[in-house]
Write a structure and sequence with these properties.
The complex is a heterodimer. Chain A has 6 helices and no strands. Chain A is mostly helical. The longest helix of chain A has about 40 residues. Classes of the chains: A mainly alpha, B mainly alpha. The interface between A and B is large, with 54 and 60 residues.
Chain lengths: ~160, ~425
């Protein structure tokens, strides 16, 4: 039952991450390309693509980073386990604990920052996107990380990948 | 150094050794340092909020876009057929010489490096194809694996280069000028590797073959035309001043997509989606280190650690030549354990004040750091390239390490030349961008 739930949670999260990452990055690529084009073809410089693209990079970094927890592709230094192989497993759990700590930290303080922004009602300069929404990436990242962590830790404890 | 800083640095190194992801090690030590060791009276809550805000704000930077799009560009290349066409072109150019296919492999790494900013992408793209091809042609296995593990260093030396992008972000140097420093060293490495291949293969009894007829060469170039235009767009765009680095990366991505999907017809839309998603995750794993180092950096600045280290170094090392030697040795050791992105982001702010003390040009140093840490891709125990080609050739770490040894020596020789012959590195950038000096 637990594994089944995890399987479906993973499905939903992967779908969410992949499609939002794809669409945001695609939109960034297309807008920047159009802005290069208009600068040359119509000697008209748009100001909003830069801001939009900056926001996309923030989204892609924070959400991509959560997605990397499951893919186990975060950059780390593997010197110790490659020299002392039996340490690999215990270190994995040290690792998970560190990620959990960070996820909780970023969720809690990220949420506090969101509340602060809601209070001051600040928006971005050009597109008038509420800052609260952008700061929302932080708690979102934290929560996604925790969910991904449950998945990875279960796999590590049982030694079996989660699939149907 | 006072004891608080020592503890924090030890915690940091401990976390790295315990395989905690690099960005997390940076954030955790930054937070711990601020909360428990720094001499500040601010309550923890406020401090933590400021650190998280700094973490967030550090990503709000237009210059980071270039990382995402150059990674994307390299990945489009790897999944489509552009790599294949580049290898064909390289083969047509030098394939008939003794050891021609080996040289073609090195040249292909150079061509690919002119499009991609990463060594790992180059190893995967070129090595995956060339190692079996070389072995099939009768080259010794250790040559095939050794050269195709080490030549991909060209990926980060020949611009665009991810580590140069990050270095210039830390130092506020002009990215185009820094890119310019990569060409001569790149050519030098190609030259040295090709010469080694030539003599090694001639001694092994390989002879020159008849060069391919001109018609065939023209046909290969025609087939590879769209692929070869890609570096032209990137360099032509950046160095003529038509594009900023950001714009060049974007245009290159759009161009590569159009070529692969509509002209070569080697990529489906579903594949295109996969490439975009995987590239954004890869770039996230790099950029989050930038965010982490901003948290750690805040603590370092508060404690004046870079200044303290500079004072200590200036007091013990007296000449520029000696300093460069010490730094090179230090970086080689760091490169054995740490990847180039983390090392560049963590160490550049510490070295920066020293460059000024010793009168070292920061573009020259950026290039040295890139080459030096690039060698770290092929040094055990943590040489990413070693593991990749090892898996390709089904060999263990010790075997691959022995195979790359002659190439590491060649690279070290080149590094020595680049270190002490500053003009070789700075000649092109001075010619094109006199304003940066």
């Amino acid at each position: 039952m637990f594994r089944r739930t995890l399987y479906w949670v993973d499905k939903v999260l992967t779908f969410f991450e992949e499609w939002t990452l794809f669409l945001t990055v695609l939109v960034a690529l297309v807008t920047l390309f159009i802005s290069v084009f208009t600068r040359y073809a119509m000697t008209y410089t748009m100001t909003w693509p830069e801001e939009l693209v900056r926001e996309v990079v923030m989204y892609a970094t924070f959400i991509g980073c959560a997605s990397a927890v499951k893919a186990r592709s975060l950059i780390r230094i593997d010197a110790v386990p490659s020299l002392v192989p039996w340490l690999k497993k215990p270190l994995n759990f040290v690792n998970h604990a560190a990620v959990l700590g960070f996820a909780l930290f970023v969720t809690y303080y990220g949420w506090k920052l969101v509340q602060l922004q809601l209070l001051t009602k600040q928006t971005t300069v050009i597109l008038k996107v509420p800052q609260a929404l952008l700061y929302g990436f932080l708690p979102l990242m934290g929560i996604l990380m925790i969910l991904r962590l449950v998945h990875v830790v279960t796999e590590d404890i049982t030694g079996k990948p989660i699939s149907r | 150094m006072d004891s608080a800083v020592t503890y924090v640095v030890l915690i940091f190194l401990g976390a790295l050794a315990a395989t905690v992801p690099v960005y997390l090690a940076l954030v955790l030590t930054g937070v711990l340092g601020m909360a428990f060791f720094a001499k500040s009276t601010m309550p923890f809550d406020i401090q933590a909020m400021m650190l998280v805000q700094g973490f967030f704000k550090s990503m709000d930077n237009f210059a980071l876009v270039v990382v995402l799009f150059f990674i994307l560009c390299g990945n489009i290349m790897t999944s489509g057929s552009i790599v294949n066409k580049l290898i064909k072109v390289a083969k047509a150019l030098v394939g008939f010489l003794p050891g021609g296919l080996g040289m073609a492999g090195v040249l292909a790494c150079g061509l690919f490096g002119a499009i991609s900013g990463s060594t790992v992408a180059t190893v995967v793209a070129i090595g995956g194809f060339m190692i079996p091809a070389l072995i099939k042609e009768g080259y010794p296995e250790n040559y095939a694996v050794g050269s195709m593990t080490s030549a991909p260093i060209l990926g980060i030396i020949i611009p665009p280069s991810i580590s140069m992008i990050l270095y210039s972000m830390v130092t506020n140097d002009s990215l185009s000028t820094l890119f310019m420093t990569g060409f001569m060293p790149g050519f030098l490495i190609i030259l040295v590797f090709c010469a080694y291949t030539f003599f090694a293969c001639r001694r092994a009894g390989m002879r020159m073959e008849a060069p391919p007829p001109l018609r065939e060469v023209v046909a290969v170039f025609k087939e590879g035309f769209w692929a070869l235009m890609l570096p032209v767009i990137i360099f032509g765009g950046i160095f003529s001043g038509a594009f900023t680095a950001n714009e060049a990366a974007v245009v290159a991505c759009v161009y590569a997509f159009i070529v692969e999907i509509f002209i070569h017809k080697d990529m489906t839309l579903a594949q295109a989606r996969k490439v975009i998603v995987s590239s954004s995750v890869t770039s996230a794993t790099l950029l989050v280190i930038v965010a982490g180092s901003s948290v750690f950096g805040r603590y370092l600045t508060l404690e004046r650690l870079p200044e303290m280290i500079t004072e200590a170094v200036v007091a013990t090392v007296h000449s520029k030549a000696m300093f460069l030697l010490v730094v090179n040795l230090f970086l080689l050791v760091v490169g054995m354990f740490m990847d180039i992105v983390s090392a560049t982001l963590i160490l550049t702010p510490i070295f920066l004040p020293m460059l000024h003390e010793f009168g070292i040009n920061s573009y020259h140093f950026g290039l040295l750091m890139t080459v030096n840490l690039g060698i770290g891709y092929v040094t055990p125990p943590v040489g990413v390239s070693l593991y990749i080609t090892g898996a390709m050739a089904k060999k263990d770490l010790v075997w691959v390490t022995r195979a790359v040894l002659p190439f590491i020596l060649l690279q070290l020789g080149v590094l020595g030349v680049l270190t002490y012959w500053e003009d070789l590195v700075l000649f092109l950038p001075k010619l094109f961008y006199p304003g940066s000096f």
